[in-house]
What we know:
mainly beta, 3-stranded antiparallel beta sheet, 15 strands, binds zinc ion, 6-stranded antiparallel beta sheet, about 40% strand, globular
Amino acid sequence: MTLIQPFVTEVDFLSGALSSPGYVIERKLSDMTEMYADRDEATRILTEEGDRLIYEVQGIELPAEEGQIPHCSTRILPGDIGGECHMTKGHYHARREQGEVYFGLSGRGLLLMQTEDGDTSELEMVAGSAAYVPPYWAHRTVNIGAEDFVFFSVWEARAGHDYGTIERDGFRKLIMLRDGEAVVVDNPKYG
Ligand code: PAN
Ligand code: ZN
């Protein structure tokens, strides 16, 4: 067990910026072209409009040891790819029995979840929402508003991230914009 000195981080609710991030990850359209339902439109945007920042994560680096509690902010930019709202890649925890807490800081989002048994859930999040991701639920967040959607996440250090299952199968539900409103639809390409 590593003994760490207590510390505090200032979080900008509008941008998700941390006062001293241990890491910053930028996810662009080119990092997740295959994840959008309309791959042709994703490819067209890349070719004709160039790459696009979809979301950014700023986090605190901690040892992957029992009892450590990593935390980070995520900012998803507004927009869509062929009508599908900007979203995170999404993942299961490698250790499926590990849950997580998300806290909304600004903007409007949906927290999309599913289990390997076929259950699905979509929870709306705004500033002040504390959402619980129980063990065994894959999770992805989606920006359904016109501003940045920013939230804060807290999880257990040994949870680990399994991106491969979602990269292979996708999510059962897609979040699409219809007349400016977000609607949940079945993903015809799931699995
Ligand atoms: C979150 C996510 C973060 C980015 O901190 O890692 O929002 O989403 P992806 O990891 O799916 O790219 C979390 O769920 N951590 O476990
Ligand atoms: Zn997670």
